[in-house]
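Input.
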Amino acid sequence: MSFNYEEVKKAYERIQPYIRKTPLEESFYLGDEKRNYYFKLESFQRAKSFKIRGALNKMMTLTEEERLKGIATISSGNHGSSVSYAASLLGIQNAKVIVPDEQMRNFIAIAGTSEERILYLPYSEVDLAHGDRVRITGGTFEGVEGIYQRIRGVRDKQVVVCIEGLVAVATATVPAYLVEKI
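Output.
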């Protein structure tokens, strides 16, 4: 598959209303007198990855008939979360994100050990850039670290825990006295 500058420009114009302009930062550690290295901070995208760009562009080029049939991906990481978020932005109702068995087993094992009320939210509903980094000091989740923040539609602050390698975010209501800032 090959593409040219005009196709890249059209893709950018298509997705531009949905993406954030992210900063380009020079590395303090890489490079020397002859070379500078820069990082494009795509983690500032709402989906926390550059993969939202490709997911949006592909979905925006689907015909109406293809959109109605739906979309699917097998991914438990940034691609899966980007596909899910892009589908919600574009109103694609039939979007399936299939999580590989081993990662889903790990998620169920961790989440299933609690009798606490747990919410499962898509990344698009949680802004991990806001809130305090905390550790839970007692109860079922003792030792678990996360972000302490208010979730839309929930009265109490929640501890948001991202389970490595999964598209899901779990939150639990934990008494404030069991939460310490780290």
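The chain has a mean pLDDT of 78.
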